[in-house]
Amino acid sequence: MTQKLLSTIEDYQNALTEKYAPGQPSFFTLSGPLPASGRTDTVLAATPTMTAILKCYAECGENTLHAHTTEDHLFIVLQGEANFYGPNGELKTIGPLNGVMLPHGTFYRFRASAGEPLVMVRVGAAALKSGTIFDRIGMDGKLMEGNSKENQHEEPVLSGKYFGPV
Length: 166
What we know:
Largest sheet: 5 strands, antiparallel
Oligomer: single chain
Distance between the termini: 6 Å
Radius of gyration: 15 Å
Number of domains: 1
CATH architecture: Sandwich
CATH superfamily: Jelly Rolls
Number of helices: 1
Mean pLDDT: 89
Low-confidence stretches: none
CATH topology: Jelly Rolls
């Protein structure tokens, strides 16, 4: 199975547009490439106000403390463990079939535990009519791109393995 890796906002916008079927149900399979390093995103379904993305992080992969300004998020762990951190160092570790709801404006970061890749479903829903789903800020209040060095992005190296059916 060959899948284009999403690395720019344009890549994400195109993938989201391809998945949007106005007036039609969107069926999907929880399947995506597992990275040996870095992280991958697979768009599962999308509407103008809601997205479903399969997020796969290599063992110990992480991102930086940030908040989404226009979207509420829901994460559900399918494989591995996610260590979620708050702005004051708070820590909650969750494993398979556990999740977290993050209202827009909530600062968080997460890190995959050692041992196996982290696989999560991320559902985003528009909370405000202004802005875009890509609006995120760092603790300094400045905009931060998801696939930026500032957000600890590294180009993924695929392992050749997949989560779910191929």
